[in-house]
Design brief:
Elements: H1 13-29, E1 36-40, E2 47-49, H2 53-58, H3 65-70, H4 79-90, E3 100-102, H5 104-109, E4 117-121, H6 125-132, E5 140-143, H7 147-154, E6 161-166, H8 174-189, E7 194-201, H9 207-216, E8 222-228, E9 240-246, H10 252-267, E10 272-279
S-adenosylmethionine is lined by residues 2, 4, 6, 18, 41-44, 103-104, 121-124, 127, 146-148, 167-169.
Active site: 167
Family: Belongs to the RlmJ family.
Pfam family, one: RsmJ
């Protein structure tokens, strides 16, 4: 039985990294008019009230989105961060207060154009129930099913372009390999798809299995970015957040580097950001 609930972690530094990357990728993709089918294989609830008892219990957003929100005036000269923070501001009922943090379904659905499509998969019954209560546009489908199998079954699609976010909780060790196989399978069916994969950086370094399987599977153009809070091994638990982008849009690397140079000082002295090609052209 699944036990992970994203409400305990909503708005943490990993969400900042993941959703800023997602926001930037969507920006780039929307520069062309041809329609896109988006997939969110592990959707979660979609929207997180920060006052919820689950979110307050760990209060991770206080070391994630909150310092950025508090610095939003100073960050308004950084284009990617300014747009990202404006999107969050538009979601608040009281403009000055950060009360709700948006999950990936929200980041994806708010920018859908008429001919774009979005499929949201969520396997946890209660999380899926929350997701069904969100007001989302008509071209969004919410599916109570396994997202990796759902992605595979849905490809190829009718739209010229595809973008998928794979954001599992990695509760089971096997998920690193399953995600890699799923990405390899998806790329065989949709060669030009832009695929984003989130992974945790933990002392056990299990993410290397995911990365190595993708490289050994012959996939090209895999860009990797990692945001860390501290050196590995200093403490137990997640010390960083990783994102892979397969077929990254041109210019993504520079835009995120510029934004992250402003983010890391707000996350603590030891926070670092780095990005490179895990596998090049
Ligand atoms: N993507 C969300 C966001 O950025 O706001 C957070 C997702 S959370 C890290 C992972 C979610 O995947 C959980 O809600 C969990 O219930 C769900 N989940 C776990 N296994 C799944 C599966 N095989 N298929 C679909 N959803 C799954």
């Amino acid at each position: 039985m699944l036990s992970y609930q994203h409400a305990y972690h909503a708005g943490n530094f990993a969400d900042v990294h993941k959703h800023l990357t997602l926001h930037a990728v969507i920006d780039h993709l929307l520069r062309k008019t041809s329609p896109i089918t988006f997939f969110d294989t592990h959707a979660g609830r979609g929207l997180y009230p920060l006052e919820a008892s689950e979110t307050q219990r760990l209060g991770e957003y206080r070391h994630g989105v909150l310092p950025l929100w508090q610095a939003r005036e100073a960050l308004s000269d950084e284009p990617l961060l300014a747009g990202w923070l404006e999107a969050i501001a538009a979601l608040q009922s009281n403009a000055g207060r950060l009360e709700r943090y948006p999950g990936s379904p929200w980041w994806l659905s708010q920018r859908l154009r008429r001919d774009d499509r979005l499929q949201l998969f969520e396997l946890h019954p209660a999380e899926h129930e929350h997701l069904t209560q969100q007001a989302l546009p008509a071209n969004v489908r919410r599916i109570h099913a396994d997202g990796l199998a759902g992605l595979s079954a849905a490809l190829p699609v009718a739209t010229p372009r595809v973008c998928a976010l794979l954001d599992p909780s990695y509760e089971l060790k096997a998920e690193y390999a399953e995600v890699a196989e799923s990405v390899l399978g998806a790329m065989r069916k949709a060669r030009h798809a832009v695929v984003l994969v989130w992974y945790p950086l933990l002392p056990a370094a299990r993410h290397l299995e995911l990365l190595e399987r993708l490289r050994d599977g012959g996939l090209r153009k895999i860009w990797r970015s990692e945001l860390t809070l501290r050196e590995p091994g200093e403490e137990r638990g997640m010390y960083g957040s990783g994102m892979l982008v397969v077929n990254p849009p041109w210019g993504l690397d520079e835009r995120l580097a510029a934004a992250m140079a402003r983010v890391t000082p707000l996350l603590g002295e030891a926070s670092r950001y780095r990005a490179d090609w895990w596998v090049g052209e």
